[in-house]
Write a structure and sequence with these properties.
GO terms for molecular function: hydrolase activity. By secondary structure, the protein is α+β, with helices and mostly antiparallel strands. It is 16% helix and 35% strand. It starts with 10 loop residues before the first strand and ends in a 12-residue tail after the last strand. The relative contact order is 0.18.
């Protein structure tokens, strides 16, 4: 940040009185606005279709950078004036054209290194009427064994899917889905790529 969004004066990076972190502070004595920068929220869903004992998960192939051409769950940045659930449902409609019934929050993943928090909700597809949105090259249902694990876009997607399928084993044994939270500390590119 170089200039104040309130008065257009230059800003400097300093620790304001009573604070404990460097912030961008307007250098104009008449303004002196402190510009707080906070993590971005990424919301998405795990849309599933289950019939005759077979479960499939809907994935989107990215048509945008970062990670163009890699597979992801439908997700994106939360907008102002919406709840986390509304953001997850909107992103699922925008990226996959899918109609879903939103379930419980399933994962909350802290990605401090890129200043983000990723959250994924369980979701049930209401029908098979889905199609790629502007940010997707294609949208496809995958059984667990067919998921393109080596071509997943981000560690948060891999982590969420691994936890989801681990919970499916518990469900078959009479358990239920849990709520999972983790800190993702590795690079946001896939593990098999150079950083």
């Amino acid at each position: 940040m170089k200039f104040c969004s309130e008065c257009a004066s230059p800003v400097s990076l300093s620790i304001p009185a009573g604070d404990n972190r460097p912030r961008y502070v307007c250098t104009s004595a008449s303004c002196a606005t402190i510009h707080y920068q906070n993590p971005k929220m990424v919301l998405g869903s795990i849309p599933v279709w289950e019939r005759d004992g077979e479960l499939q998960v809907l994935l989107c192939k990215r048509a945008i950078e970062p990670r163009y051409g890699y597979w992801t769950l439908p997700a994106g940045f939360m907008e102002n004036n919406e709840t986390t659930g509304e953001a997850a449902a909107r992103e699922t409609r925008e990226e996959a054209g899918a109609n879903i019934k939103l379930g419980n929050l399933f994962t909350l993943l802290n990605v401090a290194r890129v200043h983000q928090v990723h959250m994924f909700y369980l979701a049930e597809l209401l029908d098979l009427d889905f199609a790629p949105g502007e940010e997707s090259l294609e949208v496809q249902l995958f059984r667990e064994q067919d998921i393109p694990w080596d071509d997943l876009a981000f560690p948060t997607i891999r982590t969420t899917l691994e936890l989801f399928f681990a919970d499916r084993v518990k469900i078959r044994e009479g358990g239920s889905y849990g709520f999972h939270t983790q800190d993702i500390t590795r690079n946001m590119r896939s593990d098999n790529e150079p950083t």
